Amino acid sequence: MAAERPDLAAILAPILERVDVAQRPLLIALAERMAAVRYRGWASQVTDAAQRAGLRACADREEEIARRVEALTPDAASLQRQILADNPGLEEVNRSLFGGRPLDEQLAVQASGERLGAATWRSFARSAPSAEVRETFLGCATLEEESAAYLESMIGSR
User: Which domain holds residue 67?
Assistant: First the structure.
């Protein structure tokens, strides 16, 4: 029997709430970078060349999201270091969501995370301080959905 899939929104909401509203996009950008590392790890585990390439493309999208969001804030790296320092369990939460699960379950959790990420970026876009920021967040949502769709197709073909 498969392990119950974690409720990502319920797990991540308390972490998000601890971070100042203006810095929440930077917190999510940190999560995007963690996801990119995870995608590259999965790419090294699959034998199918097309799946490897697809997972690497997902990693590239995660890094692109992080770059776009970080570019909106002049001192993003320093603020992100502070966010990590203020939330020392963040990386462990990230690991615990995926650890001990078979690859297909990890991919399913990640697909759910991508869908949640798209919704989060859209939510941020609704209260964005400018058209530029709104468009950046909406572009991030689209990238999240591309990765979710890829993972869902990959899971369906395995």
Answer: 8-16+23-157
Has this prediction a pTM greater than 0.90? yes
Q: How many Cβ atoms from other residues are within 10 Å of residue 47's Cβ?
A: 6
Q: pLDDT averaged over consecutive 10-residue blocks of the chain (158 residues)?
A: 76 91 96 96 96 98 98 96 91 86 94 96 97 98 98 84
Q: Say how far apart CA 87 and CA 70 lie, in whole Å.
A: 19
Burial of 117 (0-12, 13-18, 19+ CB in 10 A): buried
**Among residues 50, 48, 37, which one has the least CA distance to residue 110?**
37
Q: How far apart are CA 19 and CA 80, in angstroms?
A: 11
* Residue 96 in domain: yes
Predicted local confidence at residue 156, as pLDDT: 73
Q: How many CB atoms lie within 10 A of CB 155?
A: 15
Asked if residue 119 belongs to a domain, the reply is: yes
Query: DSSP secondary structure string, 18-32?
Result: TS-GGGHHHHHHHHH
> Looking at the 3D structure of the chain, how many domains does it have?
1
